[in-house]
Structures are given as structure tokens and as C-alpha cells.
Amino acid sequence: MEERAEKAVALMQQKGYNCAQAVACVFAEEAGADKKTVFRMAEGFGSGMGMMQGVCGALVGAVMLAGLSRSTANLEQPDSKPRTAALARTLMKAFEQEAGAVYCKDLKGVGTGKPLLACPDCVRLACRLAAREVFPEKA
């Protein structure tokens, strides 16, 4: 699992992936999704969605994985939303508990000058949580 987290960090630092892309792409295969599609889907979520310092992109990547892995994709009668939403809440609460915040601006210390967690560490944490909560059978 740590190897996967380091791969995600390398994608971000060496290839220019944003934090959401890095997390989502390293688990794309496990989620049953095409890596290229996941990459495209996550493109607008870096640096707190649209670079607006909102919810951490790494966490968003993990939540995307929850949907990809849990949705029944029933277009006529969506029936998996409650289960996916519960998993998203679990991810968000665990991330907040371990990192101290879920918003990019808070994690980076914007306004306070006291960063809580650097971006690579947010990616590592999101990968760890995805492995534990979304793909426990593969962790």
C-alpha cells in the first residue's frame, strides 16, 4: 500500500498530475475504470477544486474511487447512492481526523500561516484511506 501511495506522489511530482488525479489513477484498475477516463474526470479537482482551495483534491480522488467501486450504475433507478455516500462520509471523517482539516486552504495554512499537511502527505493519506476503506480486500 505504501508503494501505491509513493507512486501517486511520484505521478504528482514528476508527471504533473494534480492530487485528485494521482490518487484516483493509482486505484483506477481496482475500481474497474479506465485510467485515462479517470485522469480526465479528475482534472478539475486539483488544489481544492478548480484551484479554489476547497475540499482537498486528494480526498476528492478517494471519494471518486468510492463511487467508481460502489455504484451500481443503474441509470434508470439509482440505488447505490446511500451506500456510496456513507463511504464518502467515512473517508472525509477519517481524513479530517488524521489531517486536521478537509479544505485545501486549511491544510496549506492559508490565512493562518500554520500548514497542517503538505500536498504529498495529503496524497499519501488519501491513498492509505482508499486502500483501507474502499479496497480493504486488496490492502
Uncertain runs with pLDDT below 50, 5 residues or more? none
Q: For the CA atoms, what is the radius of gyration?
A: 14 Å
Structural class by SSE content: mainly alpha
Number of strands: 0
Order of helices and strands: HHHHHHH
Helix proportion of residues, in percent?
55-70%
The average pLDDT score comes to 95
Number of helices: 7
- Please report which band the strand proportion falls in: under 5%, 5-15%, 15-25%, 25-35%, 35-45% or over 45%: under 5%
Query: N-to-C terminal Cα separation, in Å?
Result: 6 Å
| Morphology call | globular
**Largest beta sheet, briefly?**
none
Describe the structure concisely.
The protein is built from 7 helices and no strands.
Structure in words:
The protein has 139 residues and is mainly alpha-helical. The chain contains seven helices and no strands. The protein has helices at residues 2-15, 19-26, 35-42, 57-70, 81-99, 104-108, 119-134. Helix 1 (2-15) crosses helix 2 (19-26), helix 2 runs antiparallel to helix 3 and helix 4 (57-70) packs antiparallel against helix 5 (81-99). The longest helix is centred in the middle third of the chain and has 19 residues, at 81-99. It is globular, with a radius of gyration of 14 Å. The chain starts with a helix and ends in a 5-residue tail after the last helix. The model has no long low-confidence stretch (mean pLDDT 95).
